[in-house]
Amino acid sequence: MKTFKLREMSREELKQRESDLQEELFNLRFNAATRALDNPLRLRLLRREIAQIRTVLHEDEKGIRHLGAGASRAAGTEDKK
């Protein structure tokens, strides 16, 4: 998922998505230990998306960038002109 789409989500949605991805990652790791995976690249993609979610949550927590601020990407580029 693109980072700007993650920034459009609420804090609760992000935490729920992170929880879902953590569960899927656990299941994939378990399956990898017991048998071959159909798509081993999925492990990397899950870890990456979890890291992106944690980064967005941290940015909001520290006041660097607020959630919902990515809703209008074009508006942000107009300010730079």
| Uncertain runs | 71-75, 77-81
CATH architecture grouping = Orthogonal Bundle
- The general outline is elongated
Which structural class matches the secondary elements?
mainly alpha
Per the CATH scheme, the topology name is Helix Hairpins
Number of helices: 4
Sheet of most strands? none
Radius of gyration: 16 Å
Provide the domain count: 1
* Top CATH class: Mainly Alpha
Question: Kindly, what is the distance between the CA atoms of the first and last residues, rounded to a whole number of angstroms?
Answer: 28 Å
Helix content: over 70%
Beta-strand fraction estimate? under 5%
Mean pLDDT reading: 87
SSE succession: HHHH
Task: Explain the overall architecture.
Helix 2 runs antiparallel to helix 3 (41-62). This protein has a single domain, classed as Helix Hairpins. It starts with a helix and ends with a helix. It has helices spanning 3-7, 11-34, 41-62, 73-78. With 81 residues, the chain is mainly alpha-helical. The protein has four helices and no strands. It is elongated and about 45 Å long.
